[in-house]
Description:
The chain is α/β, with parallel strands linked by helices. Helix content is about 30%, strand content about 10%. The strands form 5 sheets. Strands 1-2-3-4-5-6-7 form a 7-stranded mixed β-sheet, with helices on one face. The chain has a 4-stranded antiparallel β-sheet with strand order 10-13-12-11, with no helix packed on it. The chain starts with 5 loop residues before the first helix and ends in a 56-residue tail after the last helix.
Amino acid sequence: MGRITEDLIRRNAEHNDGIICSLEELSLHQQEIERLEHIDKWCRDLKILYLQNNLIGKIENVSKLKKLEYLNLALNNIEKIENLEGCEGLTKLDLTVNFIGELSSVKALQHNIHLKELFLMGNPCADFDGYRQFVVATLQQLKWLDGKEIERSERIQALQDFPEVEQQIREQEKAYCLKRAKDKEEAQRKLQEEENEGQREGRHTGFDGRWYTDIIATLPSSEESKDDVQAPEIQEGECKKKKLDNVEDDLEFWNKPSLYTPESRLETLRHMEKQRKDQEKLSEKKKKVKPPRVLISENGRALNVNEPKYMDTSLIDVDVQPTYVRVMVKGKPFQLVLPAEVKPDSSSAKRAQTTGHLVVYMPKVGEIITGCQGTSKPVKSTPGSSREQTHKRSQQMERLEVDPGKRAFPDVANIVQEKKHTPRRVQAEPQIIPSEEDPDFEDNPEVPPLI
């Protein structure tokens, strides 16, 4: 059951930045509130207050709200109009669908001289003969009753017939009070029977009036441990059986005839709460224990597994194997099968400080990293030279070489180079000695050589 707390009011006062002392409008509908409290101390400046669809059984603790103009208490368990004399500015009061049977209690609203609208439809008193005439004659400041305007002629007629109507109302009130007393006794007897039945079944009531099963007293620890390790099929069968039982009980409850009283509303709420609790218990039992993570299959093949979360670097453990790599993040594995065999001894892992990405370098088996080329060249293997290549790879050190003579930064001193004019040297062209094998060659000494 809900209660009016300071935190509840602040959460519903977001439009006022969570400030409750200067709050002018407050909506606390559908909160299962049983008692009206604290509002007159914390929210003195309220003008509009919504409390519909709760379980409030009495109007109280609102007399200090002098500025209150509209009060909505529809769909509650109120049986009498009272304690509203201090609400001097009240102009509209909504009491639709309550349990008001004492129609004469509307006289308490005669002090609210600014009251213009009143809603009493859906109450037992609205079924009384002469109900409207009695209210119109009693509250002469009213302009609207149950959404219908009060005409001047209607008020004059109601005042003329008031003595007779008042007598009828008192007789009907008396009959209703007797019937209401019997309903209360019946509800009390039924509640006592449920309490006795619950005690026989080993249940007890909590501080909120609900029933709870005393599991600790009825089940020993050994049985509890056995229940925890039951087979999934047995647990699933028990859950289905309990679910069917709950469905049957639910159908029986809703098909059973019941009077519309405050006690029946509370009983319905308790039943719905019990159904919700049972549903939560069934859902918890349906949860199976997670099987242990299988990282390697029965035939020794590594499996792909992904269950990591972003964590601190100190909680990350990287394990590189020839055919797979495994990253443990706070005990949760991320395993990836590699398409080719790698060298675990030459692998390294580093995490970026800006993005948090984890980069794992894993050189493949059969690749050589050289300093003059950026990419590795695979060594082609042939049946005849496989032993020779294996011997060469064992003697050759696979290391990424960096030339220390290279500067880490570019030389900006001589970015633009001036053109230097150098003297041109004339070199004699070598004489072309013809081949003696050419039969058409004739050597003429008078012809100068070509420059």
